[in-house]
């Protein structure tokens, strides 16, 4: 089993049994954790469970980095937790420990706008039980698990202003990553090259045009993400 954990297997494909199983498993974890927290847990227990979920995401990223270093595969240009999803997973305990609404209203749009696509069309090559497979799903489906938990257990909801806060912080992230990519010759945030799997960036032209054109798509996507929250809040307002 340990050998299988590290042995390369480039068998993953969109919609295969491993893909479907991961979606089903994380859906099950998400539904069960929200149900149990709301029905059986005290407020303190709800926060503890949230800490466990957030901590497990961060720990997965740390263990993956340790595995890459131990195997002599670690590369600063591709393995730092600087891709947006990896960064969110790595730093998730900051959110779960502080339960900061500011962090929630920023990442809720990042997760639904970007992470969801990564779950539907994974940029992944390894099947279970390879450690890359585990890291990928914990660092993507795990984020959706956490944001749904925060929404339905912490009862957090973004506001209209949250759209612009999230967009503004995302621009700061992009600027910082442009600097990192320049120094390391890397492609964090896919700012130098499109993902190898299909994505919305394929609708646009080659670099650097897809980066610029993609910026004009972000705010409309964030508005669409906000709509269910807007109508839900309106329905519950007397």
Automatic annotation (TrEMBL):
Lineage top rank: taxon:
Bacteria
Keyword NAD applies: no
Key word RNA-binding present:
no
User: Transmembrane stretches, by residue range?
Assistant: 20-37, 49-70, 76-95, 102-121, 133-154, 166-190, 210-231
Q: Which UniProt keywords apply?
A: Membrane, Transmembrane, Transmembrane helix
InterPro entries in UniProt: CHP02206_TP0381 (IPR011737)
The protein in question is named: TIGR02206 family membrane protein
Native species: Aureispira anguillae
Lineage of producing organism: Bacteria, Pseudomonadati, Bacteroidota, Saprospiria, Saprospirales
């Amino acid at each position: 089993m340990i050998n299988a954990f590290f042995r390369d297997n480039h068998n993953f494909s969109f919609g295969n049994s491993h893909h479907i199983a991961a979606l089903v498993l994380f859906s099950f974890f998400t539904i069960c954790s929200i149900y149990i927290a709301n029905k059986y847990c005290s407020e303190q227990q709800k926060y503890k469970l949230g800490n466990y979920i957030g901590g497990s995401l961060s720990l997965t990223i740390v263990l993956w980095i340790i595995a890459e270093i131990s195997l002599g595969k670690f590369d600063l240009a591709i393995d730092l937790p600087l891709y947006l999803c990896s960064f969110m997973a790595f730093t998730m305990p900051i959110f779960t420990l502080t339960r900061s609404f500011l962090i929630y209203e920023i990442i809720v749009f990042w997760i639904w706008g970007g992470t969801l696509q990564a779950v539907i069309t994974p940029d992944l090559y390894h099947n279970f039980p390879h450690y890359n497979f585990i890291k990928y799903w914990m660092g993507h489906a795990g984020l959706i698990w956490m944001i749904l938990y925060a929404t339905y257990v912490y009862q957090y909801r973004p506001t209209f202003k949250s759209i612009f806060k999230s967009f503004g912080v995302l621009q700061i992230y992009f600027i910082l990553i442009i600097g990192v990519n320049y120094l390391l010759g890397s492609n964090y945030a896919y700012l130098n090259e499109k993902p190898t799997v299909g994505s919305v960036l394929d609708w646009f032209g080659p670099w650097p045009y897809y980066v610029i054109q993609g910026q004009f798509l972000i705010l409309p996507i964030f508005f669409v993400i906000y709509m269910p929250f807007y109508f839900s809040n309106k329905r519950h307002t007397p």
